[in-house]
Amino acid sequence: MRLPPFGGSFAKITYMDKASRIMALENEIIEQKICSNLAAGATQLVMGDGNLDSQIVFIGEAPGKNEDLQGKPFVGASGKFLDEMLTSVGLNRSDIYITNIVKYRPPNNRDPLSDEKRSFWPYLMRQLEIINPTVIVTLGRHAMDCFIPGAKISVDHGRPHKVQLHRDGAEYNWLVMPLYHPAAALYNGSMRQTLMDDFQKVKDLIN
Ligand code: URA
């Protein structure tokens, strides 16, 4: 079933509507056999987790081993670090929604390929239409590239970008905040501090 786009201030759907639409989208990804090669090697599809009414959505790259096993994004080491940073600015998982561009674990945790990102992009767009956030936080360069092509993470991290995208006649305006990926910053002291500083900017943005 093809769902109509949502977005803008006219969107007025209940939480349960959103949950069933996300579930329908998940089933569609499976039925359409999107990235069937990745699906074949994965335990399950990892759609996303968190508050479907949140005004802020975090987007990572792709599930890792723990995420693949548990069916939820960011539940491994980088997820724990992410939780720490959320706590440091007074947020927790139930305040945000979190997902990845690519919804199946790539083999041996390799980077997602361009083709894989392209295949999942329309589904990510529809996922965002359903949640209807105002702020998107990209984690790492893969997610950033999808929203702000040509940006450079070392230069653009922590700087909100106004992004306008069109799909099926609807217009979407998001503030996209690119951040370093928590996995990259986990064991790198200066990047860790930079990421924590950028988190404060995310908090300021939603305030
Ligand atoms: N890294 C990601 O980009 N996403 C996850 O869900 C876990 C680790």
Task: Record the SSE blueprint.
Blueprint: H1 15-31, H2 36-41, E1 49-50, E2 56-60, H3 65-70, H4 77-88, E3 97-100, H5 114-131, E4 135-139, H6 141-147, H7 153-156, E5 161-167, E6 170-179, H8 182-185, H9 189-206
Parallel strand pairs: 2-3, 2-4, 4-6
Antiparallel strand pairs: 1-3, 5-6
The chain binds uracil.
Uracil binds at residues 60-64, 67, 73-74, 76, 78, 100, 183.
Number of domains: 1
Shape: globular
> Which regions are unreliable across 5 or more consecutive residues at pLDDT < 50?
1-11
**Count of helical segments?**
9
| Name of the top-level CATH class | Alpha Beta
| CATH architecture designation | 3-Layer(aba) Sandwich
* CATH topology (level 3) name: Uracil-DNA Glycosylase, subunit E
Strand content: 15-25%
Q: Please tell me the overall pLDDT.
A: 93
Give the SSE order as H and E letters. Answer: HHEEHHEHEHHEEHH
| Sheet with the most strands, sense and barrel status | 6 strands, mixed
Helix content: 40-55%
Task: Let me know the CATH homologous superfamily.
Answer: Uracil-DNA glycosylase-like domain
The strand order across the widest sheet is 1-3-2-4-6-5
Compute the number of strand runs.
6
Radius of gyration equals 16 Å
Distance N to C terminus? 37 Å
Bound molecules: uracil
Secondary structure category: alpha/beta
